[in-house]
Design brief:
5 strands, two-stranded antiparallel sheet, about 60 residues
């Protein structure tokens, strides 16, 4: 499973990091980074929760 974050859609609300802080990091401006990463085994539900929490729909879970 991979995560892709559309940097143009991300508005820096930080809901992904608030929901799944072990997976989603924010840069100094509050935007999710990195924009593409592999989800560690066992963290799939956190990845989904963080993606669902994004009010902009900027996070895509790729299976």
């Amino acid at each position: 499973m991979r995560i892709h974050i559309d940097a143009l859609q991300c508005e820096g609300h930080g809901m992904c990091a608030a929901t799944a802080p072990d997976l989603y990091d924010l840069n100094d401006d509050g935007y999710a980074t990195p924009t593409d990463f592999e989800v560690p085994s066992g963290s799939e539900s956190q990845a989904e929760s963080g993606a669902t929490a994004c009010p902009m729909g900027a996070i895509k879970v790729l299976h």
